[in-house]
Design goal:
This protein has 203 residues and is an alpha+beta fold. The protein folds into two domains: 17-62, no CATH class; 89-201, Immunoglobulin-like, CATH 2.60.40. The chain has four helices and eleven strands; from the N terminus they run ααααβββββββββββ. Strands 2, 3, 4, 5, 8 and 9 form a six-stranded antiparallel sheet that branches. Helix 1 (17-24) crosses helix 3. The longest helix has 19 residues, at 44-62. The chain is elongated.
């Protein structure tokens, strides 16, 4: 903010924040300051705003914390830049094929010692799941297919527990064994999050 900024009022007849900030930083010229202080003496809103600005400036001037390392700042800026240009899209996957059911289905029902294939569609992405139940546990493996696939994180969670894994360079994953039960599956990539909200794994 530069000195010599003239007193300005908003449409509600209050002093602008810029002028109040110049006063708080002792940058306002004497004529502006005198006119502003006359208004502040009768306006509780501008008085409170000026006091908050003065407290903020005092905190900033007395701040002794160290700056974050340059690489940490660069990483944080890059994350926000990616989010700005590539907002995360949430996509609920649609079941298109079930090896044990020729018709549409909305969950997964697996039998001990058997494998099952499920195919899901999530816009331009296809998801191939392979489910194997052994004893009282289930092993879930799969692959994300499509040009939009990137490295990402896979998580399955439910009342019975949770498990997670990462997509490899071929966009494949294998989750550690989990107990039988009802789950939701989430695959998070750079610009999208694919969800299967109801995944039933039981005998």
């Amino acid at each position: 903010m530069n000195g010599g900024v003239y007193l300005t009022m908003t449409s509600s007849t209050h002093i602008s924040v810029e002028t109040l900030a110049n006063i708080a930083e002792d940058r306002a010229i004497s004529e502006d300051r005198k006119a502003a202080m006359n208004h502040i003496s009768t306006c509780s809103t501008c008085h409170d705003t000026l006091r908050q600005l003065q407290q903020l400036i005092l905190m900033m001037r007395s701040d002794s914390t160290s700056d974050a390392p340059r690489d940490v700042l660069a990483s944080a800026i890059n994350i926000f830049a990616q989010e700005k240009h590539s907002p995360l899209r949430r996509i609920v996957a649609l079941l298109t094929f079930d090896s044990r059911n020729p018709g549409p289905a909305f969950g997964v029902r697996s039998l001990p010692g058997a494998s099952r294939q499920l195919l899901y569609s999530a816009e331009e992405i296809d998801l191939d799941l392979r489910i194997t139940v052994q004893n009282d546990e289930c092993i879930l493996a799969g692959q994300v297919m499509g040009e939009g696939c990137t490295k990402g994180h896979v998580e399955i969670s439910g009342v019975e527990g949770r498990s997670e894994a990462t997509l490899n360079e071929e966009c494949e994953f294998t989750l550690p064994p989990i107990p039988l039960g009802n789950y939701s599956l989430t695959i998070r990539m750079l610009d999208r999050q694919i969800e299967i909200p109801e995944l039933e794994l039981k005998v």
